[in-house]
Write a structure and sequence with these properties.
The complex is a heterodimer of chains A (111) and B (113). Chain A is mainly beta and 111 residues long. Chain A contains no helices and eleven strands. In chain A, the strands form two sheets. In chain A, strands 2, 4, 5, 9, 10 and 11 form a six-stranded mixed sheet that branches. In chain A, strands 1-3-8-7-6 form a five-stranded antiparallel sheet, with no helix packed on it. Chain B has 113 residues and is mostly beta strands. Chain B starts with a strand and ends with a strand. The chains are: A mainly beta (111), B mainly beta (113). At the A-B interface, strand 4, strand 5, strand 9 and strand 10 of A face strand 4, strand 5, strand 9 and strand 10 of B.
Chain lengths: 111, 113
Amino acid sequence: SQQGEEDPQALSIQEGENATMNCSYKTSINNLQWYRQNSGRGLVHLILIRSNEREKHSGRLRVTLDTSKKSSSLLITASRAADTASYFCATDAGTGNQFYFGTGTSLTVIP
Amino acid sequence: EADIYQTPRYLVIGTGKKITLECSQTMGHDKMYWYQQDPGMELHLIHYSYGVNSTEKGDLSSESTVSRIRTEHFPLTLESARPSHTSQYLCASSESLQGYGYTFGSGTRLTVV
């Protein structure tokens, strides 16, 4: 399966700390994306990184991509209680058309 | 806020009933998708469409069907619901060009009793 696997499955941190989540995948990709899902809701697109990019920033988010290791990481700096959610990575298996989602990391930020 | 709408938000129905989950988007996206997600689990692609009159099955076998008669509308139908269909169904759309993220609806949580 091309589906990404996030690590850890669950993460609990204090407000103000940084949170790092990792994603590993199996085959070559064109793009990798990160999404956030609040409990019982749809997913919200956070950031897309292309296979020829190594790092990308968006506000408090920093995404890195290592295609040689087939892995990506999402760093949330100075976390807030509102960041509590599940975070998913999605990869396109080189097609650029369909994206395959991993099992997600459940992040809890304690006020 | 995302311009993609799913109705109903919650649905509880009896076994054997026919149901249609609605999904509409106002962004003019050609590509639309249906995912199934059990609580705390990954998303599985069950159907997708790249434009009007184009529909394909995804990786997860599903007893549902879809139609795409209008660009903005991508309904999913279960002819005879079963308890095994209990799940959350998420609709998404995206630009035609590669390199764009998906916009998701809020989902329909279906319970078949």
